[in-house]
Write a structure and sequence with these properties.
alpha+beta
């Protein structure tokens, strides 16, 4: 039986102790941890769930990330910082942290959710936000700030690297194609999926007769940038980063 399926009772103390070890933080007020791990489906009242903590944690994460990006990248303008922040604080990123720390094993869920094969991403994201708020209320701003940075640093690094890489990918591919072949790369839309208001595009970069691994994007521009990244990687003998999309 997974830890998240354990009934509330004698096993709860052991579960909360294991969760604190996994987080690398020990609570003085374990009731905050208990609340942060409790989904509304398992709470007697909404006030006993992690909803209020989630509200607070979302703002704390945003402030920590904004402050870090502001001081760390003085050369970036507002638009660049906003794009990176949106990736770092996204629901996907928050859910990824919960999975990476394996905190999904400690959730208190109602039967409907606990019996699902996979816990929904939005639930996992909510838990991370709630835990951030719990750490803040228990240990103060600096402790919470450090824990957030520890959790999100890998995602922040990747987001910054991708931004720099993406910004230069198309121009770099064009320079290479003109230097090596005397021609300009072309981008072909191979597929489109989704409703008109939320389409995704599959695009491949092409230099002469050579087509490179295609990539999906939420816009044609994004798909072209990713396709250029794939092409550059293949030309270097590396694995295309978006070939699996």
């Amino acid at each position: 039986m997974a830890a998240r399926d354990l009934p509330i009772g004698p096993n709860e103390d052991a579960l909360l102790e294991s969760c604190q070890q996994q987080m690398g933080y020990r609570f003085r007020q374990t009731e905050l941890l208990r609340a942060a791990l409790t989904h509304t489906s398992c709470a007697n009242t909404r006030a006993m769930s992690n909803e209020r903590l989630e509200f607070l944690g979302d703002s704390i994460i945003g402030l920590v990330v904004c402050e870090q990006l502001y001081h760390r990248f003085p050369e970036y303008q507002e638009g660049d910082l906003t794009k990176i922040k949106s990736v770092v604080v996204s629901r996907q990123s928050c859910a990824a942290v919960t999975r990476r720390l394996r905190l999904d094993r400690y959730l208190f869920l109602g039967k409907g959710l606990s019996q699902q094969r996979e816990i929904p991403e939005n639930v996992l994201a909510d838990v991370f936000e709630a835990l951030v708020a719990a750490v803040y209320l228990d240990g103060g701003w600096e402790v919470a700030r450090q824990w957030v940075l520890q959790c999100l640093e890998p995602i922040m690094e990747q987001a910054v690297q991708e931004k720099v890489w993406h910004a230069n990918a198309k121009s770099e591919l064009q320079t290479l194609a003109q230097r090596e072949h005397g021609i300009t790369p072309k981008y072909q839309v191979l597929d489109e999926q989704g409703p008109d208001h939320c389409k995704c595009f599959k695009v491949s970069a092409q230099i002469g007769s050579q087509m490179f691994a295609p990539a999906w994007g939420r816009t044609k521009k994004e798909a072209e940038i990713r396709a250029a990244c794939n092409a550059l990687a293949q030309l270097r003998g590396e694995k295309p980063p978006y070939a699996h999309d």
